[in-house]
Amino acid sequence: MPQFICNVCGKKSGWTGEKLQRDQPSCAACGSNVRTRGLIHALSLELFGCSLPLPDFPRVRSLRGLGASDPGDYAEALAAKFDYRNTFYDKAPRLDITRPPEGESGLYDFLVSSDVFEHTAPPAGDAFRGACRLLNDHGVLLMTVPYQIDAPQNEHFPELHEFGLARIGDKTVLVNSTRDGRTEVFGSLVFHASFGGPALEMREFSEDGLKALLAGAGFREVRFYGEDYLPYGIANAESWSLPVAARKGPFHFGVESAREIVEQWREVRQKLDSEMRTLNQSWAFRVGRKLGWF
User: Fold this and answer.
1) Where are any strands of DSSP class E within the chain?
2) For residue 176, how far is the Cα from the chain centroid?
3) Confidence of residue 286 (pLDDT cuts 50, 70, 90)
4) Taking the mean position of all CA atoms in its chain, how far away is CA 99?
5) What is the pairing mode between strands 191-192 and 199-200?
6) Which residues contact 75 (CB under 8 A, 6 or more apart)?
7) Is the pLDDT of residue 265 over 80?
8) Domains of the chain
9) CA-closest candidate to residue 130, choices 237, 213, 31, 47
């Protein structure tokens, strides 16, 4: 049976080679789906210019990252590799991406968000402007959101102001009081599964709408990662709702980051040289090399 290496946990998984649904767990070891693996694939390419499994990321503590309700399967790994902090809207450590603290403006090299921006309060542009403010001049936002290619963007509650959820019979409705005092009642609500509990969908994005929102927030370059990458089991069944990278400017390593990577390479090289010296002292290894066994 064909296999892929899960770039979230680094383990091998059997696979028939078929296209994979966005949120269908497909790694036998950690349960990652193609959406998560695509997001980590995009993050690796944006930071290092090549795709590495997350366990093989170099340790660069001078790179600062921020998570917006990232799941633990990769949040803990990112924290081990970078100066990374995960945050949440509804529990500590808290972060409202629509109104980030002024003291954190421009602090981060990257921000990771998986299916969060469709749940932020309107207007949608506030969340993207908040993300842009948090990033430094060469920072990058890595994100996924559900979006359509041809359908128009749809804001479900455009005048949301003071609101709450209520049960009427067997249905949940949203009751909103607009800024001008009108009362609105919305049925047919859509909730997404979330590790923190059901999350209300505030909008349906379109691809063009996403591009416009990101450009309006101050991002200079937007890339949709639509290419499959079969070695990591990234074989998307859909051509929409794919990982997105939005940059404020060209990424580059600072002197401190470059030093950390070079020192790690030196440590690996020294360890390899030491192991080779030990092997060369073995009579069996020397004979095997001469005979072409190694």
Assistant:
1) 3-5, 12-14, 60-68, 82-87, 108-114, 135-144, 147-148, 154-155, 162-168, 171-177, 183-186, 191-192, 199-200, 203-206, 221-224, 244-247
2) 32
3) low
4) 20
5) antiparallel
6) 67, 84, 86
7) no
8) 3-155+201-252 (3.40.50.150), 157-190 (no CATH)
9) 213
